[in-house]
Specification:
two-stranded parallel ribbon; single chain; 71% helix; 222 residues; 4 strands; mainly alpha; two-stranded antiparallel ribbon; Four Helix Bundle (Hemerythrin (Met), subunit A)
């Protein structure tokens, strides 16, 4: 089994060329009182803002803008906490890995279920997408333990891209609503369809990646 502090981090995301310099600049300009743990808390606060905003869209679509702000807050806290620790050379590999990713699982649950409480996405489809996302998270963490490679991006997509897509979806819904499409099973909103496709994609990526890594590990263990 791999030691957490020695793992190789792979984050080959589409927005990486923009995100990495931005995070380094932010880390260099953070006040002394700002700590990685505070940033982790800010990320969770962002998740709560997102969920509450989606729920409040039952009263007004204007809360979609607050949800988008929540995604920015969540990105700021979640993406910067580890960067700040590495910048200041105050890493606590085991503690940091444990806290970061258990909190991530909590945040993901809050966000997906919050979206399911909005008038735009059926709760059961939001739950299905959450299961797919959590399965991918489990794959990442187990792979890190057995291979020493912490890969948090697949097909150039990672948490940052997902947040950006969510903001684009919020903007689309605000201006154009949630048009319905007539299917054999009945009328369904396009957000439901998109979320269902994402959920299926996550399931297939999880299964394919798991089988691929299992074959590789089987060869290494011979």
């Amino acid at each position: 089994m791999s030691d957490i502090k020695d793992h190789e981090r792979i984050n080959d995301i589409l927005l990486g060329p923009l995100e990495r310099p931005a995070l380094q600049w932010l880390a260099a300009h953070m006040p002394a009182w700002m700590t990685p743990d505070i940033l982790t808390g800010i990320g969770t606060f962002g998740a709560v803002v997102i969920a509450a905003s989606y729920w409040l869209t039952n009263d007004s679509a204007w809360f979609l803008w607050l949800a988008s702000l929540g995604f920015l807050i969540n990105w700021f806290g979640d993406s910067l906490d580890g960067t700040l620790a590495r910048y200041r050379k105050i890493e606590r590999p085991k503690y940091g890995f444990f806290i970061d990713h258990t909190v991530d699982a909590l945040n993901e649950t809050i966000i997906f279920l919050g979206f399911g409480l909005s008038p735009y996405l059926r709760f059961e489809i939001a739950s299905l997408a959450l299961i797919g996302y959590l399965l991918m998270s489990v794959l990442v963490y187990v792979s890190t333990a057995v291979s020493g490679v912490f890969k948090i991006s697949y097909g150039k997509l990672g948490p940052t891209e997902i947040r950006a897509i969510a903001i684009l979806i919020n903007t689309f819904i605000f201006f154009f609503g949630n048009p319905t499409i007539n299917l054999p099973i009945g009328s369904t909103g396009i957000v439901d369809i998109a979320a269902f496709i994402v959920a299926l994609a996550l399931f297939f990526i999880f299964i394919g990646s798991s089988l691929q890594q299992a074959r590789q590990l089987a060869k290494e263990d011979i």
